[in-house]
Amino acid sequence: LLFPVSNLCGKCRPRDTDLLQPSLNFLYWSLHQTTPCSQQRAVAVLLSNVSLLELLQKVLECTWLWSPPSGPAYLSSEDALLCSGWLLVASLLLYQHRYNTEVHQTLSLDLTQVLNAVIFRNKKPILLLVSILQFLRAALRQNFSSSLLVIVGQNTAQSATQPQPSSLQDAALHPLATQQVFSLVVSLQNLLVHKDLLLSQAVVACLETLMEYLYVKNQGVALHVASQPWHRFLLFTLLSGGQNSFLQPEVLRLMTLFVRYQSSNIISQKEISQIVQEAAEANLAELPEATSCALHLFLCQV
């Protein structure tokens, strides 16, 4: 089925949302709900379909062209298609790297536009933000060096004309700029305050990957980002409002992040003791799987 569905997608236009959206969803789930052997073949099939990749390029570009919906909770058919497109491309990035699959057509994206979609949001629905974050995380995990993805934009153009950028930090973090990193971190913090479960999971995962990227590129910048006082205010905000417990998956994962990067001004010995105490008093067998995994990672990091 991958052959006819992917060929059908390649013959469509981005405006054919009724046909494209379920088709892209089928391709996405075909990648995820199969055996590793079949998965490798499925990736090869999709990445060899030039017309499909050209269609995906056009779909992603519609993110900046289509007018925003009436509000962040409203998901139009166009937004649903964008979600499917971003999620499929994120998966293709992941599996192309895993299997080192040959690429017959590259995708070109302006990194500044991708970051601005998260930083400024502009009434984007939560599901679309989650999908873009999934893509951003996949690109960060590969240091923006995937053979499937070509990064274009102002920072890239500057690096071509100026072999020695004025900012050593920007050079180390390339293609990200230092200011973009700080703006992105603040925006991710703001998204966490929404306390939407799906969005929180995507935001924390993106923060984890971003910190790993920064630590490899420039440890000073990574530690500076991890020690920002705003993080502590964020933790208190997440712990307020009824569910005053450290045993929340997103809170535990954030705490793990701060312990990992030695942010003693954000998480103190007192908070660590509180988490251990809550874990000791909880019925571990009844904890949700996400909480159990997050608690395990936290204790191992401590």
Tell me about this structure.
The chain is built from 16 helices and 2 strands. It has a two-stranded parallel sheet with strand order 1-2. Mean pLDDT is 90; it is low at 156-166. The termini are far apart. By secondary structure, it is an all-alpha fold. It has helices at 2-10, 17-32, 36-47, 50-65, 77-99, 111-119, 126-141, 154-161, 168-173, 178-192, 197-217, 219-226, 230-239, 249-260, 269-281, 289-301; strands spanning 107-110, 149-152. The relative contact order is 0.07. One of its GO terms (biological process) is meiosis I. This is MEI1 protein. InterPro entries: Immune_Signaling-Apoptosis_Reg.
Q: What are the salient characteristics of this protein?
A:
16 helices; 302 residues; two-stranded parallel sheet; mainly alpha; Immune_Signaling-Apoptosis_Reg; 3% strand; MEI1 protein; single chain
